[in-house]
Amino acid sequence: MPSIYVAFSPSMQEWGSDVGVSKHLYKPGFTHGDPKQAVQELNEAVYAGQKDWELAGAREVTEFDEASFAARLADRQKTIDPLYYPKIKGAKDIVKLEQRKIEANIVIKLTMEGRDSKVPKLKPPLVAEVILDSLIGTGLV
What we know:
A four-stranded antiparallel sheet has the order 3-1-2-4, sandwiched between helices. The two termini are 26 Å apart. It is globular, with a radius of gyration of 15 Å. It has one domain. The chain is α+β, with helices and mostly antiparallel strands. 30% of the residues are buried. The protein has five helices and four strands; from the N terminus they run E-H-E-H-E-H-E-H-H.
């Protein structure tokens, strides 16, 4: 069954924070296999110059193929330009998120579910959930 996943690299997030891009840098992907294996392949390929990719979240999907996933990603998320930032070694699908947009999305979702709408501390699994929701079409960001 195909899956979409979101991976993150702690060292890339540190770099993004240092250069002022965003500390919320993630790599969404599409795979026909196990998302954990896809993340392991990112590490083996030293994707975007990093070897410490970790899986933040994944969902099985039936309505996607690789082309429709790429189109949705381009429509719904801002990516880093690899020509402007040579450190990412040509990786065209590294997503950068603004913290206030993530927080607003989470607060709206919690409010609509009738739960306490305090802004939680942003951890990679929570941010991955926001990205996956936006790619599937159930989120705002």
